[in-house]
Specification:
Layout: H1 13-39, H2 41-48, H3 53-87, H4 95-106, E1 110-113, H5 115-118, E2 127-130, H6 132-180, H7 189-210, E3 216-218, E4 228-230, H8 233-290, E5 291-292, H9 304-318, H10 322-373, H11 380-393, E6 398-399, H12 400-421
Parallel strand pairs: 5-6
Antiparallel strand pairs: 1-2, 3-4
């Protein structure tokens, strides 16, 4: 839909003909646009829909605007027809004809009376006059406003209900699958989520159908009719929620498929933990008998709660209560790993004194072998200190603190003798073996 030139001096015949041609083209374009709006699918849907909210309010105003638009178009058509008739009176229009045509084409020559004038902002007018240019501008405004409303509603209806229906169908399939594995409302959080999603989608579809403009986001800075997009915030949120539920159902299905293997693995982990704790308890008795003057941590027994939970998991599997078995297995698997780690740490802590004794024994024998390589094994001081350290380390109970001191004295004596033996002769070869502790 276009516009016309502002008013000016008396037109000559050529200017009149050009103006009439332009107005005729505008008339044809306006008529085409109005007919397209009249036949628009969105307009037909709006006419037959039970509207609510903002859409009902805007459609009432838009219907009045469309009616007014046709009234203006009829007035525009009549003015254009009158102008053409005046121009057609004679081949060479007279001065009087040109003055009349100028007033008609550029002056406030179009009068709209009665209810049409009252429908304009300000209301309660007996009549209103327009120039043809102003009338075209006003029709453009009314057309753009009406088309914007119709296109927006149609865009929402074209986008959201179909997507909601597809999501609802997927929701029903998920509900059936959830029911088959025991995920039901009141028994599993995912079952409650499915109920909530169902209610939300039902309500959302009703709202979209009755009030589409409540789900329309106009484009910022756009003046084109229909500029914007459907608001899918609620739909997107529920689609994500359904995806999360599907993942939960898949997890439950996975439990159904590999529950036996996971239970076997759990029993094995707890059995290994029990054996390790039993070994730690045995080792503690050995340590208490062989090592003196040291703190040996107490070894706790296996936790009965884990065995009870394992028995409950087996019962859930037997009764096919997969929705309950799934979270219990995940919890038990982590607890069983933690229990095995705790048992191993307990065994390590209990046997630490034996490891210290073994390290001292190894150090003592290493130094004895070292002095033997240098021909010092029969040194009386070394023999005396070696025998003292050996008695301490190979007797029970062994006092580790005293034993460590005897081993240290042997090391110091060995280091002193090795240092003296390696003092080089004048011009002699150097001993490649280093001195001091090893």
């Amino acid at each position: 839909m276009g516009g016309t030139d502002p008013a000016g001096p008396v037109l000559d015949r050529d200017e009149v003909d050009r103006a009439l041609a332009r107005l005729g083209a505008e008339h044809e374009a306006i008529e085409t646009s109005l007919l397209a709006l009249q036949d628009h699918a969105g307009r037909r849907l709006l006419e037959g829909a039970g509207l609510t909210g903002v859409t009902r309010e805007r459609w009432a105003a838009t219907e009045a605007s469309i009616t007014l638009l046709w009234t203006y178009f009829d007035a525009y058509t009549a003015a254009l027809r009158t102008a053409r008739e005046i121009r057609a009176r004679r081949r060479w229009s007279s001065r009087e004809d040109l003055v009349e045509l100028t007033g008609l084409l550029r002056g406030e020559s179009v009068t709209v009376a009665g209810s049409a004038a009252s429908a304009e902002p300000g209301g309660a007018r007996l009549s209103r006059t327009f120039t043809l240019a102003a009338l075209v501008d006003r029709m453009n405004e009314l057309y753009a406003s009406g088309l914007d409303m119709v296109v927006a509603a149609d865009a929402v209806w074209s986008a959201l209900p179909a997507r909601i229906d597809l999501l609802a169908a997927e929701l029903q399939r998920t509900r059936r699958l959830a029911h088959s594995v025991g995920v039901r409302p009141g028994e599993h959080p995912a079952g409650d989520d499915l109920e909530r999603i169902t209610r939300t989608l039902t309500r959302l579809r009703e709202q979209v159908v009755s009030d589409p403009l409540a789900f329309w986001v106009p484009a910022q800075g756009s003046s084109a009719p229909g500029g914007g997009r459907p608001d899918t915030t609620v739909y997107d949120r529920e689609a994500r929620a359904l995806d999360e539920v599907r993942r939960e159902i898949d997890a439950v299905l996975g439990v159904r498929q590999d529950a036996e293997q996971r239970l076997i693995k759990l029993r094995d982990l707890l059995s290994r933990a029990d054996r390790t704790l039993a070994e730690a308890r045995t080792a503690r008795g050995e340590v208490l008998a062989k090592i003196a003057a040291t703190e040996v941590p107490v070894v706790s027994g296996p936790p009965t709660a884990l065995q009870e939970q394992l028995a409950a998991a087996a019962e859930y599997r037997r009764q096919a209560q997969w929705h309950r078995l799934s979270p219990l297995l995940e919890s038990l698997e982590q607890k069983a790993e933690d229990e095995l780690l705790r048992a191993r740490e307990s065994l390590t802590a209990v046997t630490a004194p034996l490891a210290v004794r073994a390290e001292l024994r190894g150090r003592l024998d290493a130094y004895k072998a070292k002095v033997a390589r240098h021909g010092l094994a029969e040194d009386p001081l070394l023999v005396e200190r070696y025998d003292a350290a050996r008695r301490m380390l190979w007797s029970a109970p062994c006092d580790l603190r005293v034993a460590e001191q005897t081993v240290l004295r042997y090391q110091q004596a060995a280091a002193e003798l090795l240092g003296a033996a390696r003092v080089p002769r004048q011009g002699g070869p150097q001993d490649g073996d280093g001195g001091g502790e090893s």
